[in-house]
Amino acid sequence: MRGAMEKRFHSLFLMFSIIGPGLITVNAGNDAGGIATYASVGASYGYRMLWGLLLITFSLAVIQEMNARMAVVTGKGLSDLIREKFGVKMTFFAMSVLFIANFGVVLGDFAGIAASMELFGISKYISVPVVAVTIWLVLTKGSYSKVEKIFLLFTFVFFGYIISAFMAKPSWPEVFKSMATPSLELSTGFLLTFIGMIGTTITPYMQFYLQSSIVDKKLSIKDYKYEKVDVYLGAFWGNAVSFFIIVCTAATLYKAGIAITSAQQAAVSLKPIAGQYAFLLFGLGLFGASVLAAAIIPLSTSYAICEAFGWERGVDHEYKEAPAFFGIYTIIIFLGSALILIPGISLMKIILATQQLAGILSPVILIFMIKLVNDKRILGEYVNTRTQNIVSWTTVIFIVTLSIILFISPLFG
Amino acid sequence: MQKSKSFFFSKILYKNIYNVSGAIIGKLNDLILDFDSEKPVIKAIEVKIGRELSYISSNSLEIGKDKREKYRVVLDSNNIKVESTDENDIFLARDLLDKQIVDINGKKAERVNDVRLGKISGRWNLIAVDIGFRGLLRRLGVEYPAIRISELFKLEFRNTLIVWDNVQPLTTSVENLKLSTSMGKLKTLHAADIADIIEDLDKKSREALFQSLDDETAAEVLEEVETEVQKSLLETLSDEKASDLLEIMPSDEAADILEEIDDTRAERLLTQMEAESSEEIRELMEYEEKTVGSLMSKDFISFLPDKHVNDVVDYFRENKSKDELAYYIYVVNNKGQLLGTLAPLDLVASEAGMKLYDIMTPVPKSLEDEDNIDKAMEVMQKYHLVAVPVVNEDRELIGVISLNDLVHEYVRLRRVAA
After folding, report:
1. ipTM score
2. pTM to 2 decimals?
3. pLDDT for the residue A58
4. Residues on chain A touching B235 (C-beta within 8 angstroms)
5. Contact assessment for residue B32 and residue B18, using Cβ atoms and an 8 Å cutoff
6. CATH code of the domain in which A61 resides
7. Does B99 sit within 8 Å of A88, measured CB to CB?
8. Where do the domains of chain B lie, and which CATH numbers do they carry?
């Protein structure tokens, strides 16, 4: 009936229609917290953490593939699976951890909104309330999916870092050398920054968000090979951007001895490409990424918690039908934005600290995931392979060890 | 300590089991249910002794309750019988607690927060499942403190129980399909309600539930669910079953589905069908989107003008047809060209011996297959019609477009746009 050529186009089309969740998730992960953390990694420690970024890129790819596999095989979200395997008490624990981590990240994103608008001379007392109310209205009216793409466009600004990184003429041999030579410094500052880098890369919310978006696509196991491409591509592409942010800030700020304490300083690293427009470019990108995350994360937190406890959810419900669903994201948005309005707090510190919190909490969710993905009753023949288990357990142990060292090192300092 | 006649499962789960003299035997790890009787009965207890699991008959199980709502699980150890288990057994905590079920009354998928067990004529039965907030609090071990706090705010937490008669369990794991092999309870629901429930379920439960439906219901459900779910359900069906269902469906709906799926599969399904159905569907698939032809149904009832009223009435008595088909009866000449329409009421109101030609409405409003659906809407609105005949350029009657078809399309477009 139809030619082989057309069939090939069909499968190419199919691939593009499946690819998406992975790329969007990681891209949204490069939010205010991501940008600020990577920038401060480069600015404060030069190329010295690049080896860590390289390793967690593999971890991220393996972890997100686990989410994709669980989504396609079971057709259930991560909270659903946690609830069904671990019961109410453990689910309550997992959801509390998720809520705290996500609340932190949203706080960081509102700080990002405030910081980016301050670059344009707009006070946080105006920008934050206006954006919070707008986000809340857009989510509640259910028109979020239309707006999502606009803000996703904003984040393309950060691809400017890739060009900027080349124009800053970093010493590439040094870059590659540090990627291959692990070095760790047992100072609180170094450990915190390192954990922040992990936290912003393997954020707990991303696992829930990614798995749900893949479930929503209702893929069959036949299409799983395309979804795998999507998550791997997402992980590597997302972290490639992170890599260039670090290289770029290392080659500019670290060289000049500037540690990042404000958005202005972070913007300086875009000067090689944008010159005097660096602030404009950085401000727009930071704003877009922060708004995107400040909308996605409260919503996905609300979905995850309601899914776990079997409460009505979805923006197509009336408030009365789903009070918990509307309540949770409303609290996150308004409490998160209100805290940013406290006079005199350091926006940059909040952004970085919330990523570190997410990093410390991330192993909790990962352990739940690894337990699930190895359960034969749930995944049958699609349980983790040995290699996948080694990578994911190593990641967990590594983060836990770093956190423990972080907490006990002051005792010996 | 008094004997309890009924209690919540969470009150005894993971609690110590005592023998009659008060020594601890082990921990209650799970209960094994027998689903063969009308209400599920507890068959055996999974007891954790040290790190070992053993299975003990529940015959001598007694549940005691003290004044402070503390429960005590007692087994008569003189009477312990060890049971064997196999992988088909259904475990209460593992397979039902925290899982999704369908509430037949509420027509919705719900999550099981707790389970109510009760002693009926000497045996422990599963009486009801708890889907409410209070069940969650109980599982968290804060039921009474939370109630005391809520009383301060004049709030009341009630248990939300669904009696077992209204519970349809769903499959929960790769191997364990036994739970959902009998979907008997769903039979009382309308296909559109089943479709709503199916959309809410996860993939496994959805497939198991769908497979258990008879062909007629399955076809109706398939027609009602959203496109993505249609696709994923079709993928799990064998070619034979899929083409059977598509043949039962109205040809326009079948054509819509086939346009969405992979071309080679669609072609395979079409060749499996009887020539008549597949030809109808193929013709419908040729139409451009948003034309009347793409939405119209090929199923309609037509007669020659010299038929008598009683012949037509007899026809309806002998061939039970769907409501939608009988909005209007069409009168065509021997070339198949549309001459007139009749409403079923016209038949009732006319004498048995009259010819259709005498009672039909001649030169009815009609549409052409290449017309835009906006025109169909205009015609229906203007002339207050629930269905309009569709003719080709030679005025041959080739299909019918109904108000229902337009509503479906409208809802679909809105869903795509959202």
Report:
1. 0.79
2. 0.81
3. 93
4. 220, 222
5. no
6. 1.20.1740.10
7. no
8. 2-91 (2.30.30.240), 94-168 (no CATH), 182-286 (1.25.60.10), 302-417 (3.10.580.10)
